[in-house]
Each structure stands twice: as structure tokens, then as C-alpha cells.
Design brief:
The complex is a heterodimer of chains A (113) and B (116).
Chain A (H helix, E strand, L loop, with lengths): L3 E3 L4 E4 L4 E7 L7 E6 L6 E6 L3 E5 L2 E6 L4 E6 L8 E7 L10 E2 L3 E6 L1
Parallel strand pairs in A: 2-11
Antiparallel strand pairs in A: 1-3, 3-8, 4-5, 4-9, 6-7, 7-8, 9-10, 9-11
Chain B lengths: L3 E4 L2 E4 L5 E7 L6 E7 L6 E7 L5 E2 L8 E7 L2 E6 L8 E8 L7 E3 L3 E5 L1
Parallel strand pairs in B: 2-11
Antiparallel strand pairs in B: 1-3, 3-8, 4-5, 4-9, 5-6, 7-8, 9-10, 9-11
The chains are: A mainly beta (113), B mainly beta (116).
Chain lengths: 113, 116
Amino acid sequence: QKEVEQNSGPLSVPEGAIASLNCTYSDRGSQSFFWYRQYSGKSPELIMFIYSNGDKEDGRFTAQLNKASQYVSLLIRDSQPSDSATYLCAGTPGGTSYGKLTFGQGTILTVHP
Amino acid sequence: GAVVSQHPSWVICKSGTSVKIECRSLDFQATTMFWYRQFPKQSLMLMATSNEGSKATYEQGVEKDKFLINHASLTLSTLTVTSAHPEDSSFYICSALSQGYGYEQYFGPGTRLTVT
């Protein structure tokens, strides 16, 4: 079982809709979680991080963390074609030094006009 | 956000030669940097953790004698791919660890290595 798993894609939503990206993790010791966006041929770009249960909002993005269910999600409101990319969920493994991340396999999001 | 640069952005080399990739944190000091490799349509694979002033910690299965890492200052880490082979062709990405509250990683733009 992979430590961080993302819902299989690709995910396609119409422009203006809400895109929902999901991630589960197996390590209960994981403390912090990160969402990165990666455009084709480019390196990942940090969107948000979350370490407390509940919601965290930043502009059109909302990250949700539920430690009891070991579940992390990212909602993108008013999706735009420019949001089309691969979204990577990552967590910090428990018991290791700060900063080391375990990545999920990524979910490809396509926002069509 | 924090800025991390990498040089070169792409490189082509012949089999058997060595290639050095530089990773710099431009506006913050990074005691810890990470090196990743990414093959097409795959996620990032952590190769090693680079700590300033100490030896790098390599992930299982990564040959430390082939992928030499040096973190000589708080803003610079280098990865040298020695005796490169075609199977080493990949997208190499570094990241620098922010000392902010979230301990978030900021990625460099990546280096595309092609070994012929």
C-alpha cells in the first residue's frame, strides 16, 4: 500500500466549476500536508499546506484535513483553464526529520472552457 | 514565496561523462535541500536529503557513489551524476526547505538531463 494515495484521474471539470482533489495517507504519524501544482515539463509549485484538522482557505483554494479519517482534499473554486495541471499531494512521514515529503502519484486536472 | 534556482535547466551529455547540477536558494538560507528525480508521467522520487556541512542521506536504492551531493553553503547544493548512462536521463529537481512554520519545500525549476 502506498503511503500517500490520490484519487485516480484524470479529472475533467468545466470552467467555473469546483474541482475536488482527494488524497488519503496511511501513516498516522504524518503531521503536515502539502498540495503542489505541476504543469507539464515544469517543477512543482506550492499551493497550500495544512497541518490542523479542518479547512484552510487561500483565494480560490481550500485545503481540508481530517486526521481521524486520514484524508486530505483540495477544492478549487471557479476553476479556470489555467488550473489544468497535475496536482500532487504530499505528507511529512511521521518519525522523520522535518521537511521530508512523501508524494502521491498525482491527479491530472483538465478544466475545459 | 521563496525562490530556488537550478543550473543548468537542461543538459545533454555523452555516456560515461559526469554532469554537475547546481541548486541555489536565492532569498533565504536553506540548511536542508532535497534532490528528486522524475521520469515521464511519474511522480517525484526522492533521491537524497542534503544538509549543509554534513553528508547527504540517500534513499534506499540510490547509489551514493553515482550521485554525489555536496551542500557546501546555506544557499548552494550540488548534484553530480558520475559516469552517466542513458538510463540516468531524467528530470532532476531540487527543493529547499524553508525554516518557516510550515517547513514547506520550495522547488527549483528542474534540470532535464539527456544522456546519449
